[in-house]
């Protein structure tokens, strides 16, 4: 397997599985071995709580690994790969600086002539771990350095304990969510076959429009999420059961009640009699557990209830 092919396969593996647990980490190290020709290779994660590294997978002797986990980050030479943020080999270090703990505890006892350390950083700049490799000869050429450098972001993401936030549009893949984009300039762009751009008429997408709200569209209740991004505003919507066991008609009445309308005004808006409105209001108070119209209006405000007309 060529190094480039191995690097591509490793990148795909990392994006599918990560390497936080022992099984995937061992598989990562095996594939990494096809990219980094070495006699000893290790992948370690940084634990800020204990101030030391934790081995994820390694082919080093136990004593060498203990140094790399517990002491290597205190060694002045460790500052070179940490500050450069790129793979650093023994040959990249000036001969006058090739001494200290890593030479006394790892390189010398192992009889290694070649070695490399790559520090790994999360997308937000946090240090999350390292790769160490050593060889009995000087096989770690420039191609190896470039490939490891290219893989470093994926390796860092795989061992980072912080789970990255998914973009809002990731929910479009769940089969029940639809949505559309309201770009900063230009027309609305559907993001799924079931997108309902008409919902915009009931959505204040500016100002405090972000967040989740309930919309009643015809005979259906929708949970609508509005998220602002660099390209504009993403609106996602999905059908949900009416809250508190209310009917769709009762939600219409509740929305009008929250607008401060009287029973007669609500009746005119909904096309029903004031007496029927009164019955609906009684049911709303009972189902929501509210004591009066004002409390019911507060409940509707908490749901950010709107009607699509």
SSE topology:
Elements: H1 3-17, H2 22-35, E1 40-47, E2 52-58, H3 62-70, H4 79-84, E3 88-89, H5 101-110, E4 114-121, E5 127-135, H6 142-159, E6 178-183, E7 189-190, E8 211-217, E9 220-229, E10 232-239, H7 248-258, H8 263-270, H9 274-288, H10 293-303, E11 306-308
Parallel strand pairs: 8-11
Antiparallel strand pairs: 1-2, 1-5, 3-4, 4-5, 6-7, 6-10, 8-9, 9-10
What is shown here, in short?
With 309 residues, the chain is of the alpha+beta class. 38% of the residues lie in helices and 23% in strands. The protein has helices at residues 3-17, 22-35, 62-70, 79-84, 101-110, 142-159, 248-258, 263-270, 274-288, 293-303, and strands at 40-47, 52-58, 88-89, 114-121, 127-135, 178-183, 189-190, 211-217, 220-229, 232-239, 306-308.
Describe the structure.
The chain is built from ten helices and eleven strands. The radius of gyration is 30 Å and the shape is elongated. The chain has a six-stranded mixed β-sheet. It has a five-stranded antiparallel β-sheet with strand order 2-1-5-4-3, with helices on both faces. The mean pLDDT is 89. It starts with a helix and ends with a strand. The longest helix is centred in the middle third of the chain and has 18 residues, at 142-159. Helix 3 (62-70) packs antiparallel against helix 5 (101-110), helix 7 (248-258) crosses helix 9 (274-288) and helix 7 crosses helix 10. The protein is 38% helix and 23% strand. The chain has helices at residues 3-17, 22-35, 62-70, 79-84, 101-110, 142-159, 248-258, 263-270, 274-288, 293-303, and strands at 40-47, 52-58, 88-89, 114-121, 127-135, 178-183, 189-190, 211-217, 220-229, 232-239, 306-308. It has 309 residues and is α+β, with helices and mostly antiparallel strands. It has two domains: 3-159, GAF domain (Beta-Lactamase, 2-Layer Sandwich), CATH 3.30.450; 168-308, Orthogonal Bundle (Arc Repressor Mutant, subunit A), CATH 1.10.10.
């Amino acid at each position: 397997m060529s190094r480039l092919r191995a690097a591509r396969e490793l990148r795909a593996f990392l994006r599918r599985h990560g390497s936080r647990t022992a099984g995937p980490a061992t598989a990562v190290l095996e594939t990494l071995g096809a990219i980094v020709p070495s006699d000893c290779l290790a992948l370690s994660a940084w634990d800020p709580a204990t101030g030391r590294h934790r081995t994820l997978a390694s082919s080093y002797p136990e004593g060498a690994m203990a140094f790399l986990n517990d002491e290597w980050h205190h060694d002045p030479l460790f500052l070179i790969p940490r500050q450069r943020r790129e793979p650093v080999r023994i040959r990249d270090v000036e001969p006058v600086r090739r001494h200290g703990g890593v030479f006394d505890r790892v390189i010398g006892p192992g009889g290694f002539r070649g070695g490399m350390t790559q520090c790994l950083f999360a997308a937000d700049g946090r240090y999350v771990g390292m790769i160490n490799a050593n060889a009995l000869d000087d096989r770690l050429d420039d191609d190896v350095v470039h490939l490891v450098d290219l893989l470093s972001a994926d390796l860092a993401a795989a061992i980072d304990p912080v789970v990255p936030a998914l973009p809002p549009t990731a929910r479009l893949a769940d089969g029940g969510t639809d949505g559309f984009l309201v770009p900063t300039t230009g027309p609305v762009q559907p993001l799924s076959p079931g997108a309902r751009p008409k919902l915009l008429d009931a959505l204040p997408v500016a100002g405090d429009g972000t967040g989740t709200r309930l919309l009643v569209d015809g005979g259906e209740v929708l949970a609508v999420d509005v998220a602002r991004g660099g390209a504009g505003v993403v609106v996602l919507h999905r059908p949900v059961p009416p809250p508190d066991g209310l009917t769709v008609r009762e939600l219409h009445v509740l929305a009008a009640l929250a607008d401060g309308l009287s029973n007669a005004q609500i009746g005119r808006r909904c096309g029903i009699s004031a007496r029927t409105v009164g019955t609906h209001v009684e049911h709303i108070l009972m189902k929501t557990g509210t004591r009066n119209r004002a409390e019911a209006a507060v409940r509707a405000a908490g749901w950010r209830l709107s009607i699509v007309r």
